[in-house]
Structures are given as C-alpha cells and as structure tokens.
Amino acid sequence: MPSLYQFNETEILAFFLVLLRISAFLVTWPVFGVDSVPGPVKILLGLIIAVVLFPTVGWHAIQDTVGSEQIFWYAIREVFIGLAIGFLSRSFFYILSVAGQVISVSMGLSSIQLFNPAVGDRSSAFDQFLVGVGTLFFLAINGHHIFLGGLRDSFHLVPLSGELISTTYFGHMGAIIHEITAIGVKISGPILIAILFMNIAMAVIGRAVPQINVLITSLPVNILVGFMVMFVSLPLIIWQMHDLVDLTAERVFQMMRNF
User: Does residue 64 surpass a pLDDT of 60?
Assistant: First the structure.
C-alpha cells in the first residue's frame, strides 16, 4: 500500500476536493443523511467512499501550481455541488412530505406535529406515514445504489477542474422545486377530491337538516373518509413511487449536465 508521503501536492488536493463533495452529499443524502445517523458514521462512510472513488476520478487536469485563492473557490464549488446533488436526491422524500402535509390539512390533522428525521423538521402524522413507506420502498429497490452511482458519475460530468457554477443552474433548481410541489399535490389528489365531495354532501345535509351541527360532525367524517381513501389508494401511491425515484434520478443527471 503506498505511503502518504508518496503522493504529491496535487494528488492530496484532489483527494481533499473529492472528500468535500462526498461529505457535502452525505449531509443531505436521503435516509443516511438524517440527523439520527451519528456524525462519526457519516465521516467514516465519506472517507471510505472517497478512497474507493478517488482512483476513478479525473483529477489530472488540476494544475500543479494552484494558489490559495483558487483552492478556496475549488472547495466552495465542491461543497455546493455535493449539497445540490444530495438535495435533488432527497426530493423524492420532499414530494411525499408535501403530499402528507396537504392530506393532513384537508383532513384537519395538521395540528398533530411530530419530529420527522427524514426532513429534519416537525411534520404531521400522514407526512410521517408516507415518508416511512417511501423509505422502505427506497431501500427495497436499492435506491441508494442509484444515487451513489450518480455521485460517482458526477466526477465525470462535473470534473474537479471545472469552472464556477453557471447562473442557469439556479433557474433550473427553481423549476425543480415547483415540480416537487406539483407532484406532491397530485399524489394527494384522490383524498382531496373525496373530502371535497364529502364537504359538499355535509353542506347539503346541513341545509336540509339544520339541527345537525355540520362543523362538529364533518371533522370525524373527513378523518374517516380520508383514512379509507388513503388505504384504498395506497397500492397506487406505492406504484407511483417507482416513477418518482426514476424521475428524481433523471433530474439529478440533468442538473449535473447543466453545471
């Protein structure tokens, strides 16, 4: 095994940049990047991945004489790229989180908030349920392998010696965030439509029978209808998750080509 003293300054700099991109990716990586995973585990995992990927990285284009200012900008660029890839890889769970929040609001359960480690914030019960199902599905289809492969390919699509981030990237990120919100609302569509028709029916009943307190009665009815439609449409939601993983991977590679 070669000694550390056998590496020149350029190789050490290249390994440092590779480690920065991988570490930034692991911070926002789905499932394994959550706060419940200990920091030392993330550090060790980052070092292992960096050692494995470093021989395949095209670091030879880095100049032998690099100034301190240029090293600083190289480091900022690698951190930004790693965070961007990790954020987009996590968009699958953000979509499910948006769907869960919309469903909870429509059912009147938005006040029940629990800490969700997958998104690092407090979320509703339905949010927790959908993200939990999505996590199991993500691991079952080896989704983490897909995005680790994307991280490996990023060093070829976005080499270490590349230029600074293009300004068109920010517009691309805005479009992706808009797409995440739209897909999340579409997933919650069946429950929203069912509750809408139930509210219309309750309004008609309230007009026909004024003695019924519609405001009090509609809450448990909405919850019951929401749960029924949720479990009926759950196979369809799980089927859509496979397309969501493919869409997320496609957006990651599209983003890397736009750097």
Answer: no
